[in-house]
Amino acid sequence: KLEARIKEVQSKIEQNTHLKQKAIELREILRDRNAQLQCETQIKESQRYIDYFGEELRRLQAKGSRASFSSSSNYFSESAPLTEGSTLLTQQLVSSPNQSLDSPGPEQVDIEEDISKRYTNLDLLEADTPINKAKVSLKLHELEYKVDVEKKVQEGIRNLHQLLDPAMSTTDRRRKTELHEKQLESQEKMALLNHAVKKYKDLYLGEEDLEPFDTFTVGLLPGARKPVTGKLHLTIVEAHELAHAPTRLFRDPQTVVMVKVDGNIQFRTRPSKNDSWTDSFEMYVDKATEVELLVYDQSGDRTLPIGLLWLKTSDISESLRKKKLEAEQDDPNWVPAEVAQQHDNSESIIQHKINKENKSADSSITAWFDVEPIGRMRLEINFVRENVKRRPMDKLGRAGAFRERKGEVHEMNGHQFVDRRFYHIMKCALCGDFMSKLTYQCEDCGLACHKKCYNHVVTRCKSQPMSKLDSNEDNLKHHIPHRFESLTIILGANWCCHCGFMLPLGFRGAQKCTECAVVCHTKCASLVPDFCGMTMAKANLMLSEAKAANNRRRTFHSEDLPQSAFDNHQNPLFSSSFFSNTQSPSPSPQSTTAQENGPLQSSLSTPTIHKFNPLSARPSSLIQEGSSFQHISHLFSSQQHERTSSHFTTPVQINRKVGLDDFNLLAVLGKGNFGKVMLAEEKYTNELYAIKILKKRFVLDNDEVESTRSEKRIFLTANQERHPFLVNLHSTFQTVTRIYYVMEYVSGGDLMMHIQREQFTEARAKFYACEVLLALEYFHKHGIIYRDLKLDNIMLCLDGHIKLADYGLCKENMWNNNTTNTFCGTPEFMAPEILLENRYGRAVDWWAFGVLMYEMLLGQSPFKGEDEDEIFDAVLEDNILYPINLSKSSVAICEALLQRNPQKRLGGGKGDAQDVKNHIFFEGVNWDDMLNKRVPPPFLPTVSSRADTSNFDEEFTREIPILTPVNAMLTEGEQDNFTSFSYVANWAMEK
Question: Which family does it belong to (predicted)?
Fold first, then answer.
């Protein structure tokens, strides 16, 4: 294979060398100035291609044997004469034939570094970026989308032509003329796009040498169009090497650039004869996705498109963010992890920070960008995002949380379609057309389609149990399975025929049917209907016709059947279920326990959702219940037993009831759109507790019943062993309008407040990390993931030890191999697999633990941004920097925990918490002493009295502790959702 690839690359070098020689010869005989310029441009482009293929050949030869290296050298010596640049390259390739392949020379190292360099999407669009596989991949996918859009435009023009009245009025004749001009422009634009597609297909090389596609090290896929709001400033400076119209067709042509934002014309430059403009325009854009520049020559009334350039607003915004971040991080004392572990000094960090404040960087982007199919244009671009929730980039702070409600479910033949908003270019599984932004996706199998197409889907959801699929189904007699084989994407852009997502070049997890050529993900192959050789649209049409025919047949037979037949049909002895051999499995001990504790399992608790505070800077916790499809291993396991996350029995509550009259409300500790958390004193014992108060109407209106039940079960799990580092539940009770959760009161405040007061030492950060680790270990051993670990949720007791609070985002039944896909958490702490909407498991807690340790050690977040979108981009893309004076063990554990691939992350394997405990950072820790609180804490918080609330936010503590009136009354049926809610812990009854 390697020799074949070397020959392929050599052939491409020869072709482009030959093309370059012909262009040089043609330039000498041409008299048309524009034609001569095009020849010069072709010569330069051919040289770029030669350099690209030459570097690829050089890299392949470094992998081969000396024999293959020698044969390549012979090829160069026998081939046609090359240019000066290519001759130099050849000399470099053959100068050291005896050099060891295990010790690459400096040129080889440079190439490998260049190949491994990571470019942003905007970088790949710049003309100065050398041609590479990432650039070719991006261009092919973008051009494929552009071609499809232009086809839709042409189809629309043809339809409008047909609607015009043959007996044309003056207005209709004018419209026809306009349509004809648009049709010609569209055809010329299509020719440009097709030319560009051919160019990049010729540049494409196979991916046999590529590493497997890593979904945990990429941000937006090629083609992603994420809407951004803000002010756009664009200056069109000049252009070079454009393919101008021949002067024999356009006498004295002038060049104009037209700017479109999301397809709408916003600006035109003045005509120019020398491709120089320096024209600027500025506009406010609302949720814009793309800026397109169309370059065309004009002479009189004639116009001819000669080039096309497009930039996505999200790419512009992301590049500007990175540029600003690089300017702020231009500090030699802050380095990547591998460099930090090689230093042991702490030179002039404070001094450099002082000097850095005087630095200023240009906030705009000035670069040459590729014009397709040929040419380049210099632009100055700036984009100021509109941030309603702007926050400081280099400080820790707190803010409220919100919960995004789950959208309406649309059921269609077993599919559970929900509205999903994707920012990738996707294809509808039914009609095959492109989709963007709003998409309907099945929650179970992941089938994606247009909103207009979902009600035409008559194929059953294959993720449903087979018994459901077989019952009352009108089957199509076309059951020809696809012959799927593993595929390496060779040419062009491809999309999964089931979930609609793009399959990037080099992606390994793809399957292609050898019969009908449909392509899909490996994980989607078993979900694709057995309609080989038939489009989904045709299959659904045939199924709908078969269903209608069967309905008519049933109606006809029912009219002729005697009444006795109906009587027999209704008799249980004749029912299909009576003769079924399928039996439900006997209940397991866990199931029995769950049934015996029915009132307990249906109990409720509250989600911890706080109102957003515009003055604060901590990002809000997010949760989006719209989920992507389930993992294949869970789709067909209807008989699989699911372990419960805890085993406990309802305490016997004799002569012990708790109600609002048992407490004196003393102060407000916090509040949000859910209600309030108040400090209260129990009248009979004088003990202090924190009471979380949730309005019943809020629970019902926001469909929070099940999630609050889950949170209470988490509390009961913590109560089982009275875990020292988890907040325990005292009791729950209810009134007509509210439900109440009485919890342990931790008066020392949270770690966010303490780290804002003073920086933690490494010893103090290590102490808190040990106790948090033990709390996470307890949860994981009971099949629970926490998902919202952050400084705000770690409370400090007066004895100096910590307690984890706020179980609103916890997830049960998350054992070693179990996964989920709910989009939730706090932006800085959300693992990349959550942001990429992949299925995830317990490893997300260890990512958050890594972010927590970084913040405790350094007093700042590893991921900086002014809003949530920028933070998401930083989590997916940015390098994490460390000060050179940070200890090697601290850098090592942060690096191990902050691995973007969860399979490589510390704690992400079967060992879970034990793997983290064994890290060198925790060397010397006696975990038994730590669990039993025998290790003296490094810091003790202080309070002036039992009810002192100085460690809590004054914004809340200064409020009067009263319950606001609730006017909304609940019906009897609504109250039934809160039956059997009351609960009192065993330890509370002993007091």
Answer: Belongs to the protein kinase superfamily. AGC Ser/Thr protein kinase family. PKC subfamily.
